């Protein structure tokens, strides 16, 4: 394994792998009623906030049902001031990556790098732990 690319890939795999295996059983997502707007509540540990948003299964077929999308954020310390710039969406990428787990691991570091002017928001994509179907057709 003397190939530098293979070594780099191995290091990145080891560095990122814990993000996707962290347990999320320290917060009860069903304690948040899903809604049609973002109603943030404290979760896990400060400064994290969570919400669940109702979204359609298929925007083109409203009778296809909906599900609750789990969202998590590190809120900006400048929200409500002229310096506040709004949210930055962090997509964990990869196959089956959990944005909730990524934020649990990296959220405060991302907020430090990006700056206090922004909320850092992430989500669990389809087929992840915290995406729960709430209504069926």
From TrEMBL:
Signal peptide from the UniProt entry: 1-23
Keywords in alphabetical order: Signal
Protein name: AB hydrolase-1 domain-containing protein
């Amino acid at each position: 394994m003397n190939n530098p690319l293979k070594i780099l890939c191995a290091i990145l795999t080891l560095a990122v792998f814990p993000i996707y295996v962290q347990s999320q059983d320290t917060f009860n997502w069903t304690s948040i009623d899903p809604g049609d707007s973002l109603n943030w509540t404290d979760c896990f540990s400060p400064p994290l906030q969570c919400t669940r948003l109702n979204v359609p299964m298929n925007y083109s077929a409203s009778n296809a049902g909906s599900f609750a999308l789990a969202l998590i954020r590190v809120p900006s310390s400048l929200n409500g001031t002229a310096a506040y710039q709004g949210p930055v969406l962090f997509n964990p990428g990869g196959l089956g990556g959990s944005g909730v787990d990524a934020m649990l691991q990296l959220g405060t570091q991302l907020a430090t790098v990006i700056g206090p002017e922004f909320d850092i928001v992430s989500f669990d994509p389809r087929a992840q732990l915290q995406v729960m179907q709430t209504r069926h057709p």
